[in-house]
Design goal:
By secondary structure, this protein is mostly beta strands. It has no helices and 9 strands. Helices cover 0% and strands 44% of the residues.
């Protein structure tokens, strides 16, 4: 997969639909985003340390999971310690992530 770079986005909220498989899809978030919401009909893994196409549980060992048909809101740090990188992948098969990027 190729990294999805949304860093130049300047319209909020941004709703982005992303096709996923079990490998990590790297998404670069806009600097101004203050919150993201992850929604997926499939069970999902997510992290912010790793690289595009890495395997969750192998190359990416520090990650979270979301059950199918649940949402997760993540407040984003601002300032010098922010991390605007997101890695997502479904736990099995394929699926579509709805990513909502918010600026408050």
């Amino acid at each position: 997969m190729a990294t999805l770079d949304l860093s130049s986005t300047n319209k909020y909220p941004l709703i982005q639909r992303v096709a996923l498989d079990t490998a990590a899809q790297e998404i670069i978030l806009p600097e101004a985003c203050t919150e993201i919401i992850l929604l997926c009909a499939s069970a999902l893994h997510f992290a912010n340390v790793g690289s595009d196409d890495d395997a969750f549980g192998v190359a990416i060992t520090q990650y979270g999971s979301i059950p199918a048909n649940h949402e997760l809101k993540i407040p984003m740090e601002t300032g010098r310690q922010d991390n605007k990188k997101l890695l997502v992948g479904v736990q099995s098969g394929t699926g579509n992530l709805t990513l909502i990027i918010i600026k408050k």
